[in-house]
Design goal:
Blueprint lengths: L2 H8 L2 H33 L5 H29 L15 H9 L2 H44 L3 H37 L3 H55 L5 H28 L2 H6 L1 H11 L4 E6 L6 H22 L4 E8 L2 E8 L11 H11 L4 E5 L6 E8 L2
Parallel strand pairs: 1-2
Antiparallel strand pairs: 2-3, 3-5, 4-5
Helix pairs in contact: 2-3, 2-5, 2-6, 3-5, 5-6, 7-8, 10-11, 11-12
Length: about 400
Amino acid sequence: MTIWHRIRAYWGAETWLRTLHVAMGLVTGLLTAGVIAALVAAAVLLVWTVVVPVIAVGLLFWVVPHLTALQRARFSAYLGLKIPRLPRDRSVRNPLTWLVNQARTLSLWRQLAYHLLCPLLNGLGASALLLTWGGTVGLAVLSVRTLDWSPSKAYGLLFAVMAIGLFLAGPLVARAFTWVDVIAGKALLGPSISDELALRVETLRESRAEVIDAADAERRRIERDLHDGTQQRLVWLAMNLGMARATLTDLPEPAGRVIAQAHEEAKQALKELRDLVRGLHPAVLTDEGLDAALSGLAARAPLPVRLSVDVKDRVSPTIEAVAFFVVSEALANIAKHAEAANASITATRRGEVLRVTVQDNGKGGAAPERGTGLRGLAQRVGSVDGRLRIDSPAGGPTTIEVELPCE
């Protein structure tokens, strides 16, 4: 870089943008600090009314992110610096709960600290820059007048040297105060390490939910393809073999035996395919909901099952699929290992939680580390941030309780 380019860079547009950044920082800082001071004063002076302080504090917590957005815009406009946005909790609908959550949020107090620090910091910077640039102009004018009208040229030269010194120091002053403001802005207006981790966790949770929804949609597609395609062909094949077996009675015994065997194999394959389709994602679950799907599972179980479903509002398809899988796998385990005489299924929704309980009077002793079935249950429930509890003492009974978030 040549000397000329260095000079242009030193006194170029970047220096004047920094000067404007500091000057506007004083303006916006006084504005934001004034709004905050007014709301705090209203809360303190009218504390005896009880209602006004709550409203004032609520307005303060509401307005702080908007004041922060104004300061972020200043950093972006004059410095090209993008300070990341802070994650905002939009899930809380109760005003008092939101107020308490905001009061416990560290990032809110960091933003408040910056808005109170901003007028002081940029006020010092604006004063220093005004002294620097204003002093440069004033000393330059004084130097010219002194050299023109004073018989002594020494003072004029001194004023000229002082003007040049201030002119040279101007960009350094602008850079120094901008640097301090940037440090404060990044530290107090941007996300902290914990905020970034929370944002990362939320992003991963959303990505996982998308993957789970995509997998569930793919299971439903496979179920439709099997039901409408392969299953229909197997039904046609079994019917034809059954008709051949019933009508072609004059065939040699080996041929008749082959047809009979093929007929039985086709019926068995059709049964296994139907079981597979139901395990993937039964159509009744999509069409009629969890109550009808669980009723089908209870009816097909090899032991008496008492069913109680209290789910007035349907949950998301993904949560319904997880609940169905839990009950289906639990009944399969009961039939294979529990030696139970009967079982019960209870599904209830309370608020945003779907609770599913499967209980049997078998021999007990069920544990996730002893088989892949219960481990699969734990993994499937955990994929949607649900909770699984297994209570299975030796001798029974065994209780599997699952809590699934509805939203």
